[in-house]
Amino acid sequence: MGRLDGKVALISGVARGQGRSHAIRMAEEGADIIGFDILEPIPGSTSEGATEADMAETVKAVEALDRRIIAKKADVRSFDQVKAVADEGVAELGRLDIVLGNAGISSSPSAADLISDEAFMDMVDINLTGVWRTVKAAIPHMRAAGNGGSVVLTSSAAGLMGYANIAHYVSAKHGVVGLMRTLALELGPEMIRVNSVHPTTVDTPMVMNQATFSLFRPDLENATKEDFAAAATQMNLMPVPWLEDFDISNAIIFLCSDEARYITGVTLPVDAGVLVK
Ligand SMILES: NC(=O)c1ccc[n+]([C@@H]2O[C@H](COP(=O)([O-])OP(=O)(O)OC[C@H]3O[C@@H](n4cnc5c(N)ncnc54)[C@H](O)[C@@H]3O)[C@@H](O)[C@H]2O)c1
To answer: Under DSSP, is residue 172 helix (H, G, I), strand (E, B) or coil?
Structure first.
């Protein structure tokens, strides 16, 4: 008996990192997956692009659990692409119960007055508008089925507090909270619950790269993961540098399970205490 037996989940950014972990954990709990990812480098992003090989690894892991996965290449900046994924996935798997707006980027840090128009708009287009497009593509399917459902939007601790030098990221992630609250209001009467999760640093390719190491340790010429760990630990209340991807997946599984059947409109930190520090 899984906690998500018979459900189908649409997940953006499924090729690697948290998206892959969510797909695997959801499959372990009995869900089938409709997943998509841009599978290309994004100009201005601080991490390398996810690849076809990354996606293949996600597919292999889900199928090893005897669950089905429809995995597509699509960009959250295109509603047509996202809609095609949702439509084809539901046609294949027969239903849609869960939506995870997870895809996102981080880009070069700088003071708010020095961020370019382009960098700010790209960030919002992916990390906020892309989340809205993902849910928008899913709503008609959930509504038509009449089974209710659960939507979880991945914000960040940076969606509930400010961080210097990433005004574009912080703004987009705060925007996700407004989107979540509005969707919760609009969809609650149809028994579709909408919540957001707010992770502190998570051990994924988004942060495990030289750009991030150097950002946190500008005093060092060649900062390493260990150097970053010391700085990252300082941010958290609990003495850990970062969380594992499955820590976020477990919170999301809870929100999508019947255990959370009357929880909606909630901002759930998974943050080792950052927000109370
Ligand atoms: N890693 C962290 O420390 C951290 C902390 C808080 C919140 N988050 C958020 O968690 C979410 C997942 O990030 P992650 O840590 O797994 O990073 P990640 O870089 O490992 O994964 C993000 C995935 O999203 C995909 N993606 C990016 N832009 C896309 C687009 N335009 N269309 C489709 N797919 C796209 C990428 O290709 C990648 O596979 C993001 O929204 C991120 O902002 C991350």
So the answer is: helix
Which pLDDT score, from 0 to 100, does residue 79 have? Answer: 98
Look-up of token digits 């709990």: 29
- The answer to whether residue 163 is catalytic is no
Contact call for residues 105 and 123 (beta carbons, < 8 A): yes
107 pairs with which residues across the strands? Answer: 45
- Give backbone dihedrals phi and psi of 94, rounded to 5 degrees, phi first: 90, -10
Structure token pair of residue 50: 């996810």
Task: Say if ligand 1 is within 6 A of residue 75 CB.
Answer: yes
pLDDT in tens, 84-122: 999 999 999 999 999 999 999 999 889 999 999 999 999
Distance from the alpha carbon of residue 46 to the mean position of ligand 1, in angstroms:
11
Our answer on whether the CB atom of 35 is closer than 6 Å to any ligand 1 atom is no
- Atom 19 in ligand 1: which residue has the minimum CA distance? 206
Centre of ligand 1 from the C-alpha of residue 181, in Å: 21
Q: Using alpha carbons, select from 5, 53, 24 the residue that is nearest to residue 245.
A: 24
Q: What is the 3-state secondary structure (H, E, C) of 33-71?
A: EEEEECCCCCCCECCCCCCHHHHHHHHHHHHCCCCCEEE
pLDDT in tens, 20-77: 999 999 999 999 999 999 999 999 999 999 999 999 999 999 999 999 999 999 999 9
Q: Which residues are registered as beta bridge partners of 270?
A: 199
Tell me which residue of 67, 13, 17 sits closest to 39, measured CA to CA.
13
Q: For residue 1, how far is its CA from the centre of ligand 1 (angstroms)?
A: 30
Chain mean position to CA 152: 8
Q: Is 19 in the pocket of ligand 1 (CB under 6 A)?
A: yes
Q: How far apart are CA 106 and CA 7, in angstroms?
A: 31
Ligand 1 close to Cβ of residue 13 (< 6 A): yes
